[in-house]
Fold:
Amino acid sequence: VTIRRATIEDMLCMQNANLNNLPENYLFKYYMYHILSWPEASFVATTTDDVGGPADAVLEELAAGSGCRVSATKGDPCYVRSGEKLVGYVLAKMNDDPSQPSEALTGHITSLSVMRTYRRMGVAEKLMRQALFALSEVYRAEQVSLHVRQSNRAALHLYRDTLEFEVLKVEKSYYQDGEDAYAMKKTLDTEA
Ligand code: ACO
Structure:
Protein backbone atom coordinates (compact mmCIF):
# COMPACT_ATOMS: atom_id res chain seq x y z
CA VAL A 1 0.00 0.00 0.00
CA THR A 2 1.32 3.42 -1.02
CA ILE A 3 0.44 6.70 0.65
CA ARG A 4 0.45 9.78 -1.57
CA ARG A 5 -1.12 13.21 -1.75
CA ALA A 6 -4.73 13.23 -2.96
CA THR A 7 -5.46 14.90 -6.30
CA ILE A 8 -8.59 15.97 -8.14
CA GLU A 9 -8.57 12.62 -10.00
CA ASP A 10 -8.90 10.78 -6.67
CA MET A 11 -12.02 12.61 -5.55
CA LEU A 12 -14.62 10.20 -6.96
CA CYS A 13 -12.93 7.19 -5.38
CA MET A 14 -12.56 9.05 -2.09
CA GLN A 15 -16.27 9.76 -2.11
CA ASN A 16 -16.94 6.13 -3.01
CA ALA A 17 -14.83 4.93 -0.07
CA ASN A 18 -16.54 7.37 2.25
CA LEU A 19 -19.98 6.09 1.17
CA ASN A 20 -18.79 2.56 1.84
CA ASN A 21 -17.25 3.15 5.21
CA LEU A 22 -19.09 5.91 7.02
CA PRO A 23 -22.60 7.25 7.54
CA GLU A 24 -21.24 10.83 7.40
CA ASN A 25 -21.29 11.63 3.69
CA TYR A 26 -20.62 14.82 1.80
CA LEU A 27 -21.52 16.39 -1.51
CA PHE A 28 -18.91 15.99 -4.21
CA LYS A 29 -18.30 19.73 -4.17
CA TYR A 30 -17.18 19.49 -0.56
CA TYR A 31 -14.36 17.13 -1.59
CA MET A 32 -13.46 19.59 -4.35
CA TYR A 33 -13.52 22.44 -1.86
CA HIS A 34 -10.95 20.62 0.29
CA ILE A 35 -8.61 19.79 -2.56
CA LEU A 36 -8.81 23.19 -4.22
CA SER A 37 -8.43 25.16 -0.99
CA TRP A 38 -5.83 22.97 0.78
CA PRO A 39 -4.27 20.92 -2.04
CA GLU A 40 -1.50 19.53 0.14
CA ALA A 41 -3.53 18.45 3.16
CA SER A 42 -5.36 15.29 2.03
CA PHE A 43 -3.89 11.88 1.26
CA VAL A 44 -4.91 8.57 -0.28
CA ALA A 45 -3.72 5.01 0.22
CA THR A 46 -3.58 2.98 -2.97
CA THR A 47 -2.47 -0.46 -4.04
CA THR A 48 -1.61 -2.10 -7.33
CA ASP A 49 -2.01 -5.62 -6.01
CA ASP A 50 -5.45 -7.09 -6.03
CA VAL A 51 -5.49 -9.03 -2.78
CA GLY A 52 -8.51 -7.12 -1.53
CA GLY A 53 -10.55 -7.71 -4.67
CA PRO A 54 -12.14 -11.10 -4.13
CA ALA A 55 -12.43 -10.58 -0.38
CA ASP A 56 -14.18 -7.26 -0.98
CA ALA A 57 -16.66 -9.03 -3.23
CA VAL A 58 -17.34 -11.74 -0.63
CA LEU A 59 -17.91 -9.13 2.07
CA GLU A 60 -20.33 -7.28 -0.15
CA GLU A 61 -22.25 -10.50 -0.79
CA LEU A 62 -22.43 -11.15 2.94
CA ALA A 63 -23.61 -7.61 3.52
CA ALA A 64 -26.27 -8.00 0.86
CA GLY A 65 -27.46 -11.25 2.43
CA SER A 66 -27.74 -9.64 5.84
CA GLY A 67 -29.92 -6.88 4.47
CA CYS A 68 -27.27 -4.22 5.06
CA ARG A 69 -27.52 -1.06 3.03
CA VAL A 70 -25.54 -1.64 -0.15
CA SER A 71 -26.01 -0.17 -3.57
CA ALA A 72 -25.12 -1.78 -6.88
CA THR A 73 -21.74 -0.11 -7.06
CA LYS A 74 -21.03 -0.03 -3.36
CA GLY A 75 -17.92 -1.97 -2.45
CA ASP A 76 -16.74 -2.28 -6.01
CA PRO A 77 -13.04 -1.59 -6.11
CA CYS A 78 -12.48 1.97 -7.22
CA TYR A 79 -9.54 2.57 -9.52
CA VAL A 80 -8.06 6.04 -9.49
CA ARG A 81 -5.96 5.25 -12.53
CA SER A 82 -4.97 2.14 -14.40
CA GLY A 83 -4.15 -0.56 -11.89
CA GLU A 84 -4.21 1.74 -8.87
CA LYS A 85 -6.98 0.90 -6.43
CA LEU A 86 -7.93 3.30 -3.66
CA VAL A 87 -8.01 1.58 -0.27
CA GLY A 88 -8.11 4.55 2.11
CA TYR A 89 -8.14 8.32 2.39
CA VAL A 90 -7.87 11.19 4.81
CA LEU A 91 -9.67 14.41 3.95
CA ALA A 92 -8.19 17.35 5.82
CA LYS A 93 -8.47 21.13 5.88
CA MET A 94 -7.70 24.22 7.88
CA ASN A 95 -10.42 25.66 10.07
CA ASP A 96 -12.16 28.38 8.09
CA ASP A 97 -15.36 28.54 10.10
CA PRO A 98 -15.85 32.14 11.30
CA SER A 99 -18.24 30.90 14.00
CA GLN A 100 -15.40 28.86 15.53
CA PRO A 101 -12.63 31.41 15.94
CA SER A 102 -9.48 30.19 17.57
CA GLU A 103 -6.30 31.92 18.59
CA ALA A 104 -4.21 29.07 17.27
CA LEU A 105 -4.08 28.11 13.60
CA THR A 106 -6.16 24.96 13.59
CA GLY A 107 -6.24 22.10 11.12
CA HIS A 108 -9.20 19.75 10.91
CA ILE A 109 -9.61 16.12 9.93
CA THR A 110 -12.93 16.03 8.08
CA SER A 111 -12.97 12.32 7.28
CA LEU A 112 -10.77 9.24 7.45
CA SER A 113 -11.50 5.71 6.34
CA VAL A 114 -9.84 2.53 5.16
CA MET A 115 -11.56 -0.19 3.12
CA ARG A 116 -12.48 -3.17 5.26
CA THR A 117 -10.03 -5.70 3.86
CA TYR A 118 -7.10 -3.32 4.36
CA ARG A 119 -7.73 -2.52 8.01
CA ARG A 120 -5.41 -3.33 10.93
CA MET A 121 -2.34 -2.91 8.72
CA GLY A 122 -1.34 0.57 9.87
CA VAL A 123 -2.83 2.34 6.83
CA ALA A 124 -4.95 4.81 8.82
CA GLU A 125 -2.06 5.68 11.10
CA LYS A 126 0.17 6.42 8.09
CA LEU A 127 -2.54 8.54 6.43
CA MET A 128 -3.07 10.50 9.63
CA ARG A 129 0.64 11.09 10.24
CA GLN A 130 1.04 12.42 6.69
CA ALA A 131 -1.94 14.75 7.09
CA LEU A 132 -0.75 16.01 10.48
CA PHE A 133 2.72 16.66 9.07
CA ALA A 134 1.33 18.53 6.03
CA LEU A 135 -1.08 20.61 8.12
CA SER A 136 1.81 21.62 10.33
CA GLU A 137 4.52 22.13 7.71
CA VAL A 138 2.53 23.54 4.80
CA TYR A 139 -0.36 25.30 6.51
CA ARG A 140 1.38 26.13 9.81
CA ALA A 141 -1.32 24.48 11.91
CA GLU A 142 -0.52 24.62 15.61
CA GLN A 143 -3.26 22.19 16.51
CA VAL A 144 -5.61 19.78 14.79
CA SER A 145 -9.21 18.99 15.67
CA LEU A 146 -11.65 16.22 14.78
CA HIS A 147 -14.92 14.62 15.86
CA VAL A 148 -15.47 10.93 16.43
CA ARG A 149 -18.46 8.84 17.50
CA GLN A 150 -18.32 7.70 21.11
CA SER A 151 -18.99 4.13 19.99
CA ASN A 152 -16.18 4.08 17.39
CA ARG A 153 -13.61 2.02 19.28
CA ALA A 154 -11.21 1.54 16.36
CA ALA A 155 -11.00 5.24 15.54
CA LEU A 156 -10.84 6.23 19.21
CA HIS A 157 -7.94 3.87 19.76
CA LEU A 158 -6.14 5.34 16.76
CA TYR A 159 -6.70 8.97 17.76
CA ARG A 160 -6.31 8.76 21.53
CA ASP A 161 -3.77 6.00 22.05
CA THR A 162 -1.73 5.86 18.84
CA LEU A 163 -1.74 9.53 17.79
CA GLU A 164 -2.17 11.10 21.23
CA PHE A 165 -5.16 13.30 20.57
CA GLU A 166 -6.96 14.46 23.72
CA VAL A 167 -10.69 14.54 24.29
CA LEU A 168 -11.75 18.18 24.67
CA LYS A 169 -15.44 17.66 25.30
CA VAL A 170 -18.51 15.63 24.48
CA GLU A 171 -20.80 17.20 21.90
CA LYS A 172 -24.31 15.97 22.58
CA SER A 173 -26.27 14.59 19.62
CA TYR A 174 -23.59 15.75 17.21
CA TYR A 175 -24.52 13.09 14.65
CA GLN A 176 -27.76 12.90 12.69
CA ASP A 177 -28.82 9.70 14.45
CA GLY A 178 -28.42 11.38 17.83
CA GLU A 179 -25.11 9.83 18.88
CA ASP A 180 -22.72 12.01 20.87
CA ALA A 181 -19.29 12.92 19.55
CA TYR A 182 -15.97 13.35 21.24
CA ALA A 183 -14.41 16.59 20.10
CA MET A 184 -10.69 15.85 20.05
CA LYS A 185 -7.58 17.96 19.64
CA LYS A 186 -3.89 17.42 19.17
CA THR A 187 -1.30 20.13 19.68
CA LEU A 188 1.40 19.96 17.03
CA ASP A 189 5.05 20.51 17.69
CA THR A 190 5.90 23.73 15.97
CA GLU A 191 9.41 24.90 15.48
CA ALA A 192 10.21 28.57 15.59
N1 ACO B 1 -10.30 -2.10 17.57
C1 ACO B 1 -9.31 -1.66 18.37
N2 ACO B 1 -8.20 -1.05 17.91
C2 ACO B 1 -8.09 -0.88 16.58
C3 ACO B 1 -9.09 -1.32 15.68
C4 ACO B 1 -10.22 -1.97 16.23
N3 ACO B 1 -11.20 -2.42 15.43
N4 ACO B 1 -8.70 -1.00 14.41
C5 ACO B 1 -7.51 -0.41 14.52
N5 ACO B 1 -7.14 -0.35 15.82
C6 ACO B 1 -5.90 0.19 16.35
C7 ACO B 1 -4.71 -0.59 15.82
O1 ACO B 1 -4.46 -1.74 16.59
C8 ACO B 1 -3.62 0.44 15.95
O2 ACO B 1 -3.22 0.52 17.29
P1 ACO B 1 -1.69 0.43 17.76
O3 ACO B 1 -1.06 1.74 17.31
O4 ACO B 1 -1.83 0.31 19.25
O5 ACO B 1 -1.11 -0.77 17.07
C9 ACO B 1 -4.33 1.75 15.62
O6 ACO B 1 -5.71 1.53 15.92
C10 ACO B 1 -4.17 2.18 14.16
O7 ACO B 1 -4.56 1.10 13.34
P2 ACO B 1 -4.54 1.16 11.77
O8 ACO B 1 -4.23 -0.21 11.26
O9 ACO B 1 -3.67 2.27 11.30
O10 ACO B 1 -6.06 1.50 11.47
P3 ACO B 1 -6.90 1.03 10.19
O11 ACO B 1 -6.09 1.22 8.96
O12 ACO B 1 -7.45 -0.31 10.46
O13 ACO B 1 -8.08 2.11 10.15
C11 ACO B 1 -10.12 3.14 10.86
C12 ACO B 1 -8.78 2.52 11.31
C13 ACO B 1 -9.86 4.29 9.91
C14 ACO B 1 -10.86 3.67 12.07
C15 ACO B 1 -10.92 2.02 10.14
O14 ACO B 1 -11.32 1.06 11.09
C16 ACO B 1 -12.15 2.52 9.39
O15 ACO B 1 -12.05 2.92 8.23
N6 ACO B 1 -13.32 2.51 10.05
C17 ACO B 1 -14.57 2.95 9.44
C18 ACO B 1 -14.54 4.45 9.17
C19 ACO B 1 -14.26 5.24 10.44
O16 ACO B 1 -14.74 4.93 11.51
N7 ACO B 1 -13.48 6.35 10.29
C20 ACO B 1 -13.15 7.27 11.37
C21 ACO B 1 -14.30 8.20 11.58
S1 ACO B 1 -13.86 9.67 12.50
C22 ACO B 1 -13.34 10.80 11.30
O17 ACO B 1 -13.42 10.52 10.13
C23 ACO B 1 -12.75 12.13 11.75
Observations:
- Residues 67-72 have pLDDT under 50 and may be disordered.
- The helical segments are 11-21, 28-37, 52-65, 123-137, 153-162.
